């Protein structure tokens, strides 16, 4: 193999490795869905984790948190569970089953479709859910506030 061909192959491999490790400019972002009546404008990631793990039960000390989670097969679940609550979707489900059986809370409502999550969030002032930003394109979001996940 001549030198020019070797240099081209090495350059191609380095470029491919760099691109594989770099975040995509078009990566879909996870956002939080809150009931429109909730005055919260942003939530630290640790607080989001605390809510979804059942350790924070009230918004601002008065309104009960109502979790609306996505089924672990959804792309939104794949982008949310590991980074935010440090467990897989199936492990999260088992975690809540265990908590409920121990009398430490009620297992969150679980839906697969973003439309179902939106409808449940609209119905409860303390509701919180998550979605991919791309899933919300063209959706009627009356009654729902969308905030970024830090």
List the helices and strands and how they pair.
Blueprint: H1 3-21, E1 30-35, H2 45-52, E2 58-59, E3 63-64, E4 66-70, H3 75-85, H4 89-101, E5 109-111, H5 114-123, E6 127-132, E7 144-148
Parallel strand pairs: 4-5, 4-6
Antiparallel strand pairs: 1-6, 1-7, 2-3
Note the main sheet.
5 strands, mixed
Name the overall outline: globular
CATH fold label: D-Maltodextrin-Binding Protein, domain 2
CATH class descriptor: Alpha Beta
Number of beta strands: 7
What order do the helices and strands follow?
Answer: HEHEEEHHEHEE
Strand order of the largest sheet: 5-4-6-1-7
Quaternary organisation: single chain
Share of helix among residues? 40-55%
**N-to-C CA distance:** 49 Å
CATH architecture: 3-Layer(aba) Sandwich
List its traits:
150 residues, alpha/beta, D-Maltodextrin-Binding Protein, domain 2, 5-stranded mixed beta sheet, two-stranded antiparallel ribbon, 7 strands, 41% helix
Describe the structure.
- 41% of the residues lie in helices and 19% in strands.
- Strands 5-4-6-1-7 form a 5-stranded mixed β-sheet.
- It has helices at 3-21, 45-52, 75-85, 89-101, 114-123, and strands at residues 30-35, 58-59, 63-64, 66-70, 109-111, 127-132, 144-148.
- The radius of gyration is 20 Å and the shape is globular.
- The protein has 150 residues and is an alpha/beta fold.
- It has one domain: Periplasmic binding protein-like II (D-Maltodextrin-Binding Protein, domain 2), CATH 3.40.190.
């Amino acid at each position: 193999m001549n030198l020019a061909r070797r240099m081209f192959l090495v350059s191609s491999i380095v470029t491919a490795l760099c691109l594989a490790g770099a975040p995509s400019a078009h990566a879909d972002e996870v956002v939080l869905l809150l009931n429109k009546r909730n005055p919260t404008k942003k939530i630290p990631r640790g607080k989001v984790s605390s809510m979804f793990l059942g350790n924070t039960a009230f918004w601002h000390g008065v309104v009960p948190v109502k979790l609306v989670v996505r089924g672990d097969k959804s792309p939104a679940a794949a982008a949310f569970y590991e980074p935010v609550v440090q467990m897989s979707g199936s492990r999260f489900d088992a975690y809540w089953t265990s908590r409920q059986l121990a009398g430490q809370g009620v297992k969150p409502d679980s839906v697969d479709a973003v439309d179902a999550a939106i409808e449940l969030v609209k119905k409860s002032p303390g509701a919180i859910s998550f979605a991919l930003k791309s899933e919300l394109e063209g959706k009627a979001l009356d009654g729902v506030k969308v905030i970024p996940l830090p």
